[in-house]
Amino acid sequence: MSSPKRIEGFIPRFTVWGKPFWEAAKKRELVVQECVDCGKKNYPPTPHCPSCLSLNLKWVRVSGKGKIYSYSIVYEYPPPGFKTPYIIALIDLEEGVRMLSNIVDCKPEDVKIGMEVEVVFEDITENFTLPKFRPIK
Amino acid sequence: MTNKVKGNIAIIGIGEHPTGMFPDKPASELFYYAVREAIKDAGISKDEIDAIIVEPCLADRWFNTDLIWSRTVDEIGVGGRCKVNVQVHSGGSTSSNSIRMALGLILSGQAETVLVAHVEKLGAGPLSAEEVNRIFSTVGIYEEWEAPYGLNYNVLGAFMTQRYMYETGTTIEEVASVIVSLRKWAALNPNALLRRPLTVEEVLKAKMVAYPLTSRMCNIVTDSAHAYIVTSARRAEKTVKTPVYLLGIGGIVTHFSFMKADITRFGWKKAGEEAFKQAGIKCGDVDVVELYDSYPVVPLIQLEELGFCERGKAGRFVYEGHTWPGGKLPMTTDGGSLCRGHSGAGGCAHVVEAARQLMGKAGERQVKNAKIAIATNVGGQYMDAQVMVFGSEIP
Question: E strands within chain A?
Answer without folding.
Answer: 31-35, 41-42, 57-61, 65-74, 86-93, 98-103, 116-125, 128-135
